[in-house]
């Protein structure tokens, strides 16, 4: 599920980890994976910060700690 946002448009993925620092690390790992994709599969990144990663096709990843109500009120496509 790590890079489904590169291939499918307009999806929301939640990266949930025990602590917020771990969730932020999940966003960093996604950036590393994205940077190592072949250029023909790489979507342009339009949102790039420590808590979220958004692609030009409308898909985005957000980082949340599992101590909060995960994805409450969000129409998330998947949980990473």
Structure description:
- It is a single chain.
- The protein is α/β, with parallel strands linked by helices and 80 residues long.
- The protein is built from 2 helices and 5 strands, in the order αβαββββ.
- It has one domain (4-79).
- It has helices spanning 4-7, 20-35; strands at residues 12-17, 45-48, 52-55, 60-65, 78-79.
- A 5-stranded mixed sheet has the order 2-3-4-1-5, covered by helices on one side.
- The longest helix has 16 residues, at 20-35.
- It is globular, with a radius of gyration of 12 Å.
Compile the SSE list and pairings.
Elements: H1 4-7, E1 12-17, H2 20-35, E2 45-48, E3 52-55, E4 60-65, E5 78-79
Parallel strand pairs: 1-4, 1-5
Antiparallel strand pairs: 2-3, 3-4
Helix content: 25-40%
pLDDT < 50 runs, ≥5 residues: none
Q: How many extended strands?
A: 5
Alpha-beta classification: alpha/beta
State the end-to-end CA separation.
7 Å
Rg on CA atoms, Å: 12 Å
Overall 3D shape: globular
When the domains are counted, the total is 1
Question: What's this, in brief?
Answer:
With 80 residues, the protein is α/β, with parallel strands linked by helices.
Name its key features.
80 residues, alpha/beta, five-stranded mixed sheet, 5 strands, 28% strand
């Amino acid at each position: 599920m790590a890079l489904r946002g590169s291939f499918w448009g307009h999806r929301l993925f939640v990266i949930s980890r025990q602590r917020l620092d771990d969730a932020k690390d999940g966003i960093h790992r996604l950036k590393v994976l994205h940077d190592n994709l072949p250029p023909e599969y790489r979507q342009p990144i339009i949102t790039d910060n420590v808590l979220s990663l958004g692609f030009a096709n409308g898909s985005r990843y957000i980082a949340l700690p599992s101590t909060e109500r995960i994805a409450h009120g969000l129409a998330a496509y998947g949980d990473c």
